[in-house]
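Input structure tokens:
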């Protein structure tokens, strides 16, 4: 939609969606027994599971005015309530010299078309070293007609590793089994 004088709320973008997800189970991460008094104690490995509850076209604020959702994502389409969208979620491991955590989550993007989301997920799984890492979650069609992931990769680094990529098909503003805040 183009902006018009009659309706100043119409916009060509940028558009944004809000994602609600949570860690559903966490275990580990405690200081190793017997090392409580160490200056730099080791920790037990930490394991996390997560669940995506919904994607929303508007933010919801709590009594303090803070967002009730985990993340907001810029999208290249106008979010319409009830529209099917595809969320690309990466799980990865991270850590340090003193311990590791598994099941960390980052939401890569939200797409209108399943093929687009699947292409981004495939690109991530291929661990394409030709992908530009520039901290912006966006795609580039310069190298080929295939969708390319060119965003910051939280799963790459000395202690990090890719665990998996999932494409979630969801309807905007519909939470499956969960009440919207």
């Amino acid at each position: 939609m183009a902006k018009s004088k009659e309706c100043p709320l119409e916009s060509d973008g940028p558009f944004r969606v809000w994602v609600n997800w949570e860690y559903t189970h966490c275990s580990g991460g405690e200081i190793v027994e017997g090392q409580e008094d160490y200056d730099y104690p080791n920790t037990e490995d930490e394991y996390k599971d997560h669940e995506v509850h919904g994607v929303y076209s508007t933010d919801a604020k709590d009594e303090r005015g803070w967002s009730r959702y985990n993340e907001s994502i810029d999208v290249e389409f106008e979010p319409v309530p009830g529209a099917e969208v595809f969320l690309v979620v990466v799980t990865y491991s991270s850590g340090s010299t003193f311990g590791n955590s598994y099941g960390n989550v980052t939401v890569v993007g939200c797409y209108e078309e399943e093929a687009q989301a699947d292409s981004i997920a495939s690109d991530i799984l291929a661990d394409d070293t030709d992908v530009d890492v520039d901290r912006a979650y966006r795609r580039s069609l310069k190298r080929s007609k295939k969708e390319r992931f060119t965003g910051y990769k939280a799963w790459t680094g000395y202690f990090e590793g890719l665990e998996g990529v999932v494409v979630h098909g969801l309807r905007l503003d519909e939470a499956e089994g969960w009440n919207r805040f």
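Strands lie at 15-27, 46-56, 71-75, 84-96, 99-111, 161-171. The chain is about 5% helix and 35% strand.
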